[in-house]
Design brief:
alpha/beta; 11 helices; 8 strands; 8-stranded parallel barrel; 276 residues; binds 6-acetyluridine 5'-phosphate
Length: 276
C-alpha cells in the first residue's frame, strides 16, 4: 500500500500536480463516492438513462462507446450534459493498443472523437513506451483544445483468468507512468503498484498515481467467460482509490439501489483505510 493511499482524497487533491486528478478527488469528496459505473449497455437511450439515474452516486461513468448500436453526436452531447449536471467524469474504456501513429488518430478525431468528450482514457502498454508517448504528445500539443482536462490510465493488470498482464508488463507500466506523469493519472490494476521494485525508474517522494480497480461485484465471484470478482472492501484494502462495477450495478433489479450500496460500501472501506 503506498503512503498516499492512507491520505484522504481532499489532502491528495490539495497536493496533486495533475489538474484532472485534483478534479477527480474533489468530485469524490464532494459526492462521497468512489464508484465508477461501467455502463456497458448497447443503446444511447439506456446509457443516458443510466447516467442520469446513477449520476448522483458515482464519481465516474465508464463507457465502451463502440458497443452502442446507435452511436451519434446525441450520445456524447447527452453524456457531456449529464456529466455537468451530476458532476462526474467520463472514462472511455477504449484500451488503445497499437503503434503511436495509429492511436493518435484513434484518440483525437476519427468517427468516435474520443478526445472531445472523454476526460479519461486507458491504454495497454503491450506496444511499448511509444503508445504512452504518442497519447501524451497529442494531449500536450498546442492546438489540442482540451488541455489539462484529459488524462490516461495505464492498464497495468487485468481481472480476467490467466491474464498475461503481469510481471515485467506491470513493472514497465509503472516506469512509463513515471515518465509521462503530466498525462498519466494512474492505473487500472488490482492493487497499489508504485512500491513495486522497478528497474528503470525510481519513485519520487510526492508520487501519487490513482488506482482504479475493476472486477468489483457484491454478489458474484465471476462469470462464465473468465471474469473474476472481488468486493468493494477487498479492492479498497488492496489499494483501489476508485472501484469499477458494471453488471453488479446496471444488471441489478434496481440499479439505483445497487449504486447506493456500492457507494456506501466503497466509501466506508475508504474511510476505514484512511483511518477516519
Ligand atoms: O463488472 P463487469 O464485469 O460487468 O464489468 C467490468 C468492466 C468491463 C470490462 O471491460 C472492464 O471493466 N475491465 C477492465 C477495464 C476497466 O479496463 C480491465 C480488466 O482487467 N477487467 C475488466 O473487467 O467494462
Amino acid at each position: 500500500m503506498s503512503s498516499s493511499s492512507r491520505q484522504t482524497y481532499s489532502v491528495r487533491a490539495k497536493n496533486h500536480p495533475n489538474h484532472l486528478v485534483r478534479k477527480l478527488f474533489e468530485v469524490a469528496e464532494a459526492k462521497k463516492t468512489n464508484v465508477t459505473v461501467s455502463a456497458d449497455v448497447t443503446t444511447t437511450k439506456e446509457l443516458l438513462d443510466l447516467a442520469d439515474r446513477l449520476g448522483p452516486h458515482i464519481a465516474v461513468i465508464k463507457t465502451h462507446i463502440d458497443i452502442l448500436s446507435d452511436f451519434s453526436e446525441e450520445t456524447t452531447k447527452g453524456l457531456a450534459q449529464l456529466a455537468e449536471k451530476h458532476n462526474f467524469l467520463i472514462f472511455e474504456d477504449r484500451k488503445f493498443i497499437d503503434i503511436g501513429n495509429t492511436v493518435q488518430k484513434q484518440y483525437h478525431g476519427g468517427v468516435l472523437r474520443i478526445s472531445e468528450w472523454a476526460h479519461i482514457i486507458n491504454c495497454s502498454i503491450l506496444p511499448g513506451e511509444g503508445i504512452v508517448q504518442a497519447l501524451a504528445q497529442t494531449a500536450a500539443a498546442e492546438d489540442f483544445p482540451y488541455g489539462r482536462e484529459r488524462g490516461l490510465l495505464i492498464l497495468a493488470e487485468m481481472t480476467s483468468k490467466g491474464s498475461l498482464a503481469t510481471g515485467a508488463y506491470t513493472t514497465r507500466s509503472v516506469d512509463y507512468a513515471r515518465r509521462y506523469k503530466e498525462f498519466v493519472m494512474g492505473f487500472v490494476c488490482n492493487r497499489s503498484l508504485t512500491d513495486e521494485p522497478t528497474t528503470e525508474t525510481t519513485k519520487s517522494e510526492d508520487e501519487d498515481f490513482v488506482v482504479f480497480t475493476t472486477g468489483v461485484n457484491l454478489s458474484s465471484s465471476g462469470d462464465k467467460l473468465g471474469q473474476q470478482y472481488q468486493t468493494p472492501q477487498s479492492a479498497v484494502a488492496r489499494g483501489a482509490d476508485f472501484i469499477i462495477a458494471g453488471r453488479g450495478i446496471y444488471a441489478a433489479p434496481d440499479p439505483v439501489e445497487a449504486a447506493k450500496q456500492y457507494q456506501k460500501q466503497g466509501w466506508e472501506a475508504y474511510l476505514s483505510r484512511v483511518g477516519s
